[in-house]
Amino acid sequence: xxxxxxxxxxxxxxxxxxxxxxxxxxxxxxxxxxxxxxxxxxxxxxxxxxxxxxxxxxxxxxxxxxxxxxxxxxxxxxxxxxxxxxxxxxxxxxxxxxxxxxxxxxxxxxxxxxxxxxxxxxxxxxxxxxxxxxxxxxxxxxxxxxxxxxxxxxxxxxxxxxxxxxxxxxxxxxxxxxxxxxxxxxxxxxxxxxxxxxxxxxxxxxxxxxxxxxxxxxxxxxxxxxxxxxxxxxxxxxxxxxxxxxxxxxxxxxxxxxxxxxxxxxxxxxxxxxxxxxxxxxxxxxxxxxxxxxxxxxxxxxxxxxxxxxxxxxxxxxxxxxxxxxxxxxxxxxxxxxxxxxxxxxxxxxxxxxxxxxxxxxxxxxxxxxxxxxxxxxxx
Length: 380
Description:
- By secondary structure, the chain is α/β, with parallel strands linked by helices.
- It is 40% helix and 16% strand.
- The protein is built from 14 helices and 13 strands.
- β4, α4 and β5 form a beta-alpha-beta unit.
- α3 packs across α4 and α8 (211-223) packs across α13.
């Protein structure tokens, strides 16, 4: 713990939902719990109430909009950083990172906050994306992200720190059972799922998430005689509804209307994972981490996923029986049949990738960077 509490500013696009947003709120709460001052700058959203309730301050500015008008916030952020009371500024998305970088680099080097960037996605390699490697320390949320940085950018290896995202076992407890009321409501809403083995694909409906592979798998499982029902859990982005309709047409063409249910966006993922017999991760491109995989495994639910990116890292450590060669439909079918069988290997208790580890490593990094500067000033 430093001699005095730190003030940490996190800059993100908004606080609606998603992995980056959840991580921001989790880190903010941990800072407040440890007696530090936590500030978040964003366009706001449904998670602001929780953020403030847990001890942080929120400043509303639309620093994530994809518009040249967003540059008008550079001056505001520069003024915020130049006050002298912010020790660490941490950003985890490209447009906020540009706004922060443009503001930060104009300040005197000895008086500006320490700058951290977090890379959460395998973005297209470009000058625009390179800003995510501009931090004095760059947090990579997996070894996959670390290798992506080293391969595509000139960031020195010593500036990269791997800090995995994590799951809270209190939020996703092993062997959790939903209430009888939830079970009754679920099967009332989705009666075709009753009495079936549930195979679930969580994630927003986009071309990259493997929904077409999922539909083909369900068709083959049904044809093999297994009493399965597929759940597609996730909403559609307003600008991506064309693919949603294509997917529904595929389901109809494959005569799967009785065997696949579209649940839409859900907030009861713990319950859905717990009633699932198998959860899948079928993204055609590597995921940077794979939070849904980890959440399901934490509950003890079996997972099968394509062996690339962060999903491969998690399954290799936690449940290697779930690894499937990417896009290998034959192997996917065989592995699903094995994992749905009565003698399938159980998931061991998850002790890796804990939220507490992520929070501790992140806050210690803040403290370490601040102490490095304090020591340098003392020496001078």
